Amino acid sequence: MISLLVLTDGRDDVLARTLPVAAEHVPYERLIIHDDTGSLEHRQMLANTYRHFDAQVIGGAQRRGFGGAIRAAWQHLERTPNPFVVHLEDDFVLSRHLDWSNLADTLVRQPHLVQLALRRQPWNEEERAAGGIVEQHPADYADCSDVGGAWLEHTRFFTTNPSIYRRSLCTEGWPEGDNSEGRFGLELLRRHPSWRFAFWGARNSGEWCEHIGLERVGTGY
Predict the structure, then answer these.
(1) 220 dihedral zone (left: phi>0; alpha: psi -120 to 50; beta)
(2) Radius of gyration of the CA atoms of the chain, in A
(3) What whole-number distance in Å separates Cα of residue 187 and Cα of residue 172?
(4) pLDDT tens digit string along 174-221?
(5) pTM for the whole thing?
(6) 154 has which bridge partners?
């Protein structure tokens, strides 16, 4: 039911912390690692290192950058049968147990939700001053719930931080060029005005993952 997509770009030290935890916590049927180093030798090393997780390592002959890596990974996912994707960059560690099947069921019950993302610790100066990413703009998040749990709906952004979304989202097309993450979210809302993004959990539920990457090594953000 779930494909686990992990995007990496040569930061093997952080991937070694991130991937085993994700493999333990996410009930995936397919584990797909997109390696954007452009190195066949590096892909083969990753496939050997994580063979006990039955990982499929994909990637091209040259680096694609942030947006290009997502486009390539999504094109691959379009050909897979699992209806849901847990999206994970290589520098996020899942810090609490989650019933991912419950999150998938929430997306089924709430078809207007694009993704259910996990809150991380405050990262930039503004978030730290406010006490968190939600606390920075509290009025922009609506408290919602149903029989399966609670979430915070918003129209602020689509995030490539840890989340679950439908595989069908991959057909929407990731934009080329800089600031692709922000432009993708804006374009989704333009084409689908009733759609909403969401953080999983009630307003006081806290953080569900930890960002451990101190610097970016990729390109094309």
Answers:
(1) left
(2) 17
(3) 10
(4) 999 999 999 999 999 999 999 999 999 999 999 999 999 865 454 454
(5) 0.95
(6) 197
Spell out the alpha helix ranges (H) of 39-90.
40-49, 65-77
Length of the chain: 221
For residue 82, the SS3 value is coil
Question: Which residues, including other chains, have CB under 8 Å from residue 131's CB and lie 6 or more apart?
Answer: 122
CA nearest neighbour of 111 among 9, 196, 187, 31: 196
- Give how far Cα 88 sits from Cα of 40, 60, 206, Å: 22, 19, 19
- Of 88, 65, 90, whose CA–CA distance to 14 is shortest? 90
E-assigned strand segments in the chain: 2-8, 30-35, 55-58, 84-89, 92-94, 113-117, 142-146, 149-154, 163-166, 196-200, 209-211
89-123, pLDDT tens digit by residue? Answer: 999 999 999 999 999 999 999 999 999 999 999 88
Cβ atoms of residues 3 and 84 within 8 Å: yes
Domain 2-211 annotated CATH 3.40.190.10: no
On whether the CB atoms of residues 86 and 28 are closer than 8 A, the answer is yes
Helices 180-191 & 65-77 angle (0-180, nearest 10): 50
Angle at CA 60, nearest 5°, toward 54 and 63?
Answer: 120
